[in-house]
Every structure is written in structure tokens, then in C-alpha cells.
Protein: Adenine DNA glycosylase
Amino acid sequence: MIKPRARSTKPGAALLAWYDAHRRELPWRALAGEAPDPYRVWLSEIMLQQTTVATVKQRYAAFLSRWPAIDDLARAPLDDVLAQWAGLGYYARARNLHACACAVVEAYKGRFPRDEAALRRLPGVGAYTAAAIAAIAFDQPCVAVDGNVERVIARLHAVEAPPRKVAPLIREKAAALMSPARPGDSVQALMELGALICAPRTPDCPACPLSPDCAARRLGAQSDYPAREVKAPKPKRRGAIFILRRGDEALLLRRPPRGLLGGMNAFPSTPLTQDIAAAEFSRFAPAPARWRALEAPVTHIFTHFALEATVFVAHTRGKAAPADCRWAARANLGKEGLPTLMRKAAAHAGLLDA
DNA sequence: TAGGCGTGGGT
DNA sequence: TACCCAAGCCT
Structure:
């Protein structure tokens, strides 16, 4: 039996001390001792949902510069927000971001509520984000459990079940590490530890302030935690994307209202959530024309399926756009806010740089 | 409640 | 190549 290494401070205090010494400076993070801006905290939390810090770093400044305060964002057309979001994925976030800004302006005069329950009712704000905003922006004793926290706690206590199956336990153990005097820093410290030290693949245990207390490390089994969820196999689907050109200056675009790529500009296509046999492609063309299939298909991996899309190109002289479609100037294609799959198709057809 | 919902980087 | 993973939310 290996005993925990003796220590003179409690784990929560050790965690905070580590955070004070090693915290990153991030564009959305207030400097030590400065008051955070709730709008910036909220904006960053939405962008960071299932998205890496490195990616958000590249995109956050442009958002903040374009819409420096929540009133600016609420006044902006939704289309502008979606175009600015293009390429970031999970586009419901952008629709909810705009809806949330409007809600805060209308219901709260542009000031975010401080209450976790009230935050939780805002569009796009779930259990994690509500707790994170309450703790980080308003220093309230709320426990925000994200993937980092799940991993840290699962290792610290050698939790055998997948974290989502034992959420109350994870939350309770995370709460035990919070310092009542500094809830916001405690929450960020847990996440920072998961991001910098207690990493998914190769945790840097010698540098970890919690290693004397870590059950997984005592077992020498850090990589066994957290327990993996069983996941469904990712199906492969085939489909077609139709790029209709009018003369040399216009392209046909449509906009799926919801669901996959909802709200985003797109070329007409087969229903991408279905596997369509090649023989059926022509049924889904947006207009009769001499459709020519490009040589190799475009491939794209979504969260829950892999797509192999044949890109068809045709020219038309017709002025009228088919139902649900519109003509967009080719010169503006780069500003239309195309999701990545559609950018790939456009690049494949020589209409955009890859 | 489990599945739908993007994307890019790492191994 | 084929996974895994990232400061999740919604229905």
C-alpha cells in the first residue's frame, strides 16, 4: 500500500497556489485583481464550447472588435453574426449567441443576470456555461464542470464509471476543491489544470499540485481515467453538391433553416444527413441543366458521420432562382460565410482558394 | 435520454 | 488511416 505523500496544505489551496503561479494570459481572461467583463466572459464561453483555445484565440478578437458590447451584438443582423462565425462549427451556437444578446438587452437592460438559474434560462447557456459565467464573471460559488474538470476529478478519485454517468459525484468532488473566498479562480484553476497538466494523453503528474492526492496516480493508471463512453460507429454517407453558375458572375446559394449547417449559406445539395446512391443524385439538382461531375469527390468529416460528396457544376442563362435559393455574386463568395464543407466544394470547382 | 450538431489538430 | 479530443447545448 502506497500512502499519499504528506502535505501541509489542503488540495484546494494547493490548486489555487498553482493557478496563481501558472495561469495563462488569455484575451478574454481578466488580469489578476481586475474585474472581468461579463460580456467578454460569456462570449468566450460560447466560443469555447467544444472548441480549442487555439482556435478561439484566432477568432475572438475579431468578434470583440466588431461588436465591443452586448448592445452592438444585439443590434447586428443575424446574418452578419453567422458570417462572422463561419468556420467555427456548431452553428446553433451563433444563432443562440445572437438570441441571447437580444434577450439580455430586452429582459435585463443589457446587463447579464448574476444568478446561475437566470443565466441557465438564456439561449445557448447550459449547466456548464451558466455556472462558469456566474463563477468567473460574478465570483459566485458555482461549480462549472466541463471536460477538463471531469478528467481531473475522474483521475483524482479513480472514478470507474464514465463521468456523464456519475455527474452528481463529479460535481460534488469538484465542489470540494473550491475555495469559498475565490470561486471564480477556483473554477478556472480546475479547468486550467486539466488543460495544462492533467492532459488527456500525457499528464505531467510531477508538476501537478494534486498529485499527492491522486488515486489514479497511486494506481499507476492515469491513462485508464476517465472511463470512455461507448460510442456508435461513424457511418459513411454519399451525396452531391450542385454549383450552378449564371454567366461568370453569379452562383446559386440556399440556406438550410435548421439542422445540419442550419442558417448558413450553402450550395444546393442532396440531403446531407442521408446516404444517397449516385444514381439518385440528379433527382436533387436545383434546376435542369447540363450537370458535369468534377473528377474526385470532396470528403468531409462531421461529428457523427463522414461525407463523400460529388461536386456537380453547370451553367445557366435563366434569371429566376429556384425556390428557396438566391443568386450571390461570385466576387462576394468569400464573404458569404460558407461553412467548411461548402468552401471545400467551391475550392474544388476553382471558385475559391483552398 | 440519447443522438444531432462542425471543425481542426494531435497521435 | 482512423481514431481521439476540445471551457456543451438542445430536443
About this structure: Chain A has two domains: 11-219, 236-349.
